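Q: Structure tokens for this one, please.
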Amino acid sequence: QVQLVESGGGLVQAGDSLRLSCAASGRAFSPYAMGWFRQAPGKEREFVARITWRGGITNYADSVKGRFTISRDNDKNTVYLQMGSLKPEDTAAYYCAVDKNRYYTSSYAWSLEYDYWGQGTQVTVSS
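A: Here is the predicted structure, written as tokens:
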């Protein structure tokens, strides 16, 4: 079992930056790929970004490509999501998730690919 706790959310203005963190505890963190998803009110949960266990491969949703960067520090059991040029449409609850498949997968954007989830952190971007 892996426990995930997200932090770093908040209320920001359009164009601002924000960094989310996801701290993992429980079983060893480093063998797993990690992902970020988000869910806006009334919408389905959507993929944001994924990083393999050594950080060698990252994947992004088209809507955040070039603005968001996922990274990880395996020594700290933490994965990050650096968000820049934020837009009101980025407003959502952001969730990190563990994928026991540590390598690249074509299923990276499917929520069912992931095995453990955090409780989420709210990001609100005002216009």
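A few notes: The first strand starts at residue 2 and ends at 7. The two ends are 40 Å apart (CA to CA).
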